[in-house]
Each structure stands twice: as C-alpha cells, then as structure tokens.
Amino acid sequence: MAQFHFQLEAVLRHRERLEKDCQRDVAVAQAEMGRIQSELRALNHQVQTTTADVRQNHLTGRLDLSFLAAHRRYVLGMQRRAMGLVQKAAQQQRVVEEAQKKLAEAMKQRKVLEKLRERQHRRWAEGLARGEARELDEVITQMSFRASTGGGEP
C-alpha cells in the first residue's frame, strides 16, 4: 500500500514550533500586563482605603495638620507611582500587540503549509484512485476478452 509523504513535513513541524513559541510569548506578555493592572488596582484600593480612613478618623474634632500634610504627600507619591504603572501598562500593551502580530503571522505561515500538504495529499489520493481505476479497467478488459474468445478458465 502506497503511503503519502509530504516533503516539507520538517518545515511544517518547525513552523508549528514557532507558532507555539509565539503563543507562549503572547501568554507571558499578557500575564505581565495582568500583573501591572493588578498592581494598579491594588494601589488604587490602598489609596481609597487610606483616604476613607482619613475622612472618618482625622477630619473630625481637632485637626492634625502635620498628619494631613503627610497624607497629602503619601497620596501624591501614590499618584506618581500610579502614573509610572500606567506608562508601564501602555508600554506592555505595545509588547502584547507586537507578540499577537507575530503569532498571527506564525499561524498564517503554518496554515499555508498545511493547505499545501492537504492539496498535495488530495492530488496523491486522486492519482492513486486513477491508477487503481486503470488497473481495474485493465482486469475487466482482459476478463471480457477471454470471455469473448472462449479462452475462459477450465
């Protein structure tokens, strides 16, 4: 029985590995983006919690201006840190988009080779079917010839 052999199978396997590498790169980039966003949410929650605490506990009765000034410096520091995280998030978003573009290209390259393999396999199968049909036709022709000439089997 004849077997189909795709000559570019090694290239196809290589492109599949490249695609998996790109998938891993996208996952790593997205995980880093998630970490940055999580850090930003935690920072926001921390600022909101301390601000609520200041409102509830330090704005009634006698005001401690040095505490309020320290809280203001704390909030400003957190805002600077948050701006840094937002910039990191924007930069990481570009990294994610670039990784996704590379993944899309790798998928496209793999699919091209898979289509080529499918096309070659279809042609191979059609050629095999034509050959079998020719052999069958030859056998039927020989049997008909023998039957018509009386040279059938004893």
Number of strands: 0
The helix content is over 70%
Low-confidence stretches: none
- What is the residue-averaged pLDDT? 92
Instruction: Give the number of helices.
Output: 2
User: Sheet with the most strands?
Assistant: none
The coarse silhouette is: rod-shaped
Structural class: mainly alpha
Content of β-strand? under 5%
H and E string: HH
Computed CA radius of gyration, to the nearest angstrom = 36 Å
Distance between the termini: 32 Å
What does this structure look like?
The chain is rod-shaped. The protein contains 2 helices and no strands. The protein has 154 residues and is mainly alpha-helical. The chain has helices at residues 9-57, 65-149. The two termini are 32 Å apart. The protein has a domain at 10-108.
Topology:
Layout: H1 9-57, H2 65-149
Short summary:
By secondary structure, the chain is an all-alpha fold. The protein is built from two helices and no strands. α1 (9-57) packs antiparallel against α2.
Task: From the structure above, extract its key features.
154 residues; mainly alpha; rod-shaped
